[in-house]
Structure formats: C-alpha cells, structure tokens
Input
Amino acid sequence: MALTAEDIGSPLGERATLVQFSTAFCQPCRATRRVLTEVATMVEGVAHAEIDAESRLDLVRRLDIMRTPTVFVLDAHGRVVFVLDAHGRVPRRASGQPRKADVIAALGHTIDS
Output
C-alpha cells in the first residue's frame, strides 16, 4: 500500500515520511507531534505530515484507522513500511503514542532497505 503527496496534503520526504493521524481532542497526539517533528528535523530527508482524521474520513476508512494517534512510516516512494505502536514495538498495525527510539529505529530500517 502506498500514499501520495496528494493523499497526505504535503510533499513526501526524499528518504522517508512520518504520517500522523490525529484528532483535535487527542492528548497523546500532541506529544506524538512533538516527537515526530523532532525526529524529522534530526534526520535529513525525512518529512512529517499530520492529518486531521476527522476531516479525512475517506483516508481513515481506506487505511482502517481505528484510533489516534496512528503513525505510518512511508519510504521514499510513499509505500507504508511500518505502523508504529505505543508499547515499544513496531508491528504491522497499531496505534498510540510511539517512543522516540522506536521512530528512529523504524526510520533507520526504512531508509536502509
């Protein structure tokens, strides 16, 4: 599965893209935004895009997103490589606030592959 710049509403990163699905009243979404922004500024060629899940129900349904925050790690071509977990794992499908170390690990795997 792949996402385009049109899907996420901003350009894809040259090396990878962190796509965060959030809602207005989601407390963990704010902390997740800070983590992803920090990581994106640390790693050259990585972009961070935040999508308001309530305004993009078409995409939420297409990707089967059940809660926020949900973070997708895309490769340079927009292919979904990981969906990050809040519990220190990097599974195929999960949601919640990811740890910074897990985001960096997922990016490392995505960029190196």
Q: What stands out?
A: The radius of gyration is 12 Å. Helices lie at 5-8, 27-42, 57-63, 100-112. The CA atoms of residues 1 and 63 lie 9 Å apart.
